[in-house]
Amino acid sequence: MARPARRLAANAPGPFYVDASCIDCGTCWRWDPAHFAPGGGQARVARQPEGELATVRALLAQQACPVAAIGSPAEVLELARAGAFRGGPAPPGCALAAAGPWGSPGLCPGGMGSGASHHPGGVPGGDPWGGSLMRTVVAGMGALILAVLPAPVLAQLLGDGPGRGGGTLSWGPCPVLGRPGLEPGMDCATLPVPLDHARPLGAQLALRVSRLRAIGPGPRLGTLVLLDGAPGAPDALSLGAMARALPSAIRSRFDLLTWQRRGTGSRGEPGALHCWPSEEEARSWRARQPPSLPVGPAEETRWFDSWAELARACERHQGQLLPHLSSADSARDLELLRQALGEPTLRLRASGVASLIGATYANLYPRTLGALVLDGPIDPYAWGDNGNPLVMEGTDFRLERDLGTGATLVAFVRRCAAVGRPRCAFAPSAGGGPEAGGERRYAELLARLRQGPLRWGDRRLGTGEVFRQLRQRLQSVPADAPGGGWQGAARFLESLSRGGAKEGLAETSEEDGPPEQALSLRCSETPQPRQLGVIQALAERARSRSGPLGAWVVWSDARCAAWPAASAPYRGPWATPTPGPVLVIGHRFDPVFPFQSSLAMARELAQGRLLSVNGPGHTVLRNPSACVARHEVAYLLSGVVPPLGTVCSPDSPPFAGSP
């Protein structure tokens, strides 16, 4: 029986420990490699378990030890006796020892003596996932823990086992037909996660995981998880699109993987957020939507009431799901994914809104962070407003998205005027001219919009819709980007100024999915003003700061004013020490999240290293840079970050080449 007085010094501080009676058989770290490790002659606790599921795994490893060399406080075992880790009390008459392995022969079903030897074939160092040890442990623990665990949790605990080459995920070809984001050649699996991570044995969600295998040449180095944008956002990049944008050196050496974040998915999929019971009701609500930048008290009230109607529908039909859609929930899903993959550490590349999941993971699970790239990130403090209960400003206003979009628009119209036609369709003249001419032409278009919507093809667009179309296109500079990039933005403005033909331009739309999915993260974890009068006053203040763009971001935030259920987001600290640095990439003219957000993220992380891109656009996934690619490859393959103050240039300057 393990004794605290004989605790080995190599153990991580905390409740679980290995003592000097350990014979270095390897049973514990084969059972639970997330928390136990070989230690030069004797095993050790490398990391203390955090959370109920991790504690269950550590307790199983403790029970499996053949010489009872693993100890934990009586309080932990008392929780097991009370049923905290398995949904009910121990069977009557089943004694749990105060220390060391559980039970005595004959007291618990399948009786397992505290001193019994469980080496497969009597040989230390055998495989604890098969043979006589597996049969003995499962039989002895069945009535105590294993027999009452839900099947998904049991699979996580007793599948192939983390660290054993494949984890607990069962891979097969992806069902690509009718599934956006899935392509031929991808593998898919299902990851079970708790709806509520505070109750890991309760209701479960089944999240789809998709993977592209490393293509070589060179040995595979592991898995790189990719995330882009907000969950459910129509402009978030798919796994295939992200893979094609990454340097070949990364694509060749890593399996690339993403997963269906909680709250997303098609109608009927478990865990997908759809607030209207039928598609007909959803379409009816959309048809009643007022303009995205309401003008005057009547339109503002209609806007406020319309989104409050959606919020009530969400509370009525999805009230159980809403409190569990935070970035912290996704970060905990990510840790379960790492364990299921069998990866000792996590490598993650997250861009845009998804950067918050990466930063949260780095602070919740710093010891298992292998590498983290944050591209076009959010300022985490501005996002959460430090949980201010008296918040008077919305999320986009706090993040200064109006200023970031405005600065990019100014850079756009100036560059357009400088290069002239035909390279920029919205230029005042051919061959280039004074930059002020571009600003003047854009101001004239805004003045026309203030008089009312402008015709574009078979639609009429108001100011808010024009801003949204512009920001979507300005995210990407290259002309082959969705929406045509900066050249597409110029053609869009030119068609509006002429009264309308779309001229082959693809329309960007937020209506590709239910708006509640794209809003769920922002509305559930970021503080928002809730009174119409406060929002109206803030809109006027924002208008004085950045004109109609300011009012637009305020009313965009107002969609969350009546959101019914707040999640339990992670509020910090953000500077938890990590084993290595975090690479943060930011564009100087980012129309989505201003460059200040990248500066803030790099500053607030314990080892953030900023790599600046002296150009416009949102993320290098959408705006390639060979310079950034070299530094990213060096970081992911060797852990080397660029020197402090490094600045890169984009591969495609605005309006390069012919239109």
Can you summarize the main beta sheet?
10 strands, mixed
Question: Low-confidence parts lasting 5 or more residues at pLDDT below 50?
Answer: 83-152, 154-167, 504-511
Ends apart, CA distance between termini: 77 Å
Give the helix tally: 22
Measured as a percent range, the helix fraction is 25-40%
Strand content: 5-15%
Shape category: globular
Write down the Rg.
28 Å
What class would the helix/strand composition place it in? alpha/beta
Spatial order of the strands forming the largest sheet: 5-6-7-9-8-10-11-14-15-16
Mean of all residue-level pLDDT scores:
81
What's the total count of β strands?
Answer: 16
Nutshell version of this structure?
The protein is an alpha/beta fold.
Overview of this protein structure:
This protein has 659 residues and is α/β, with parallel strands linked by helices. The protein has 22 helices and 16 strands. Strand 14 (582-589), helix 21 (595-604) and strand 15 (608-616) form a beta-alpha-beta unit. The longest helix has 23 residues, at 296-318.
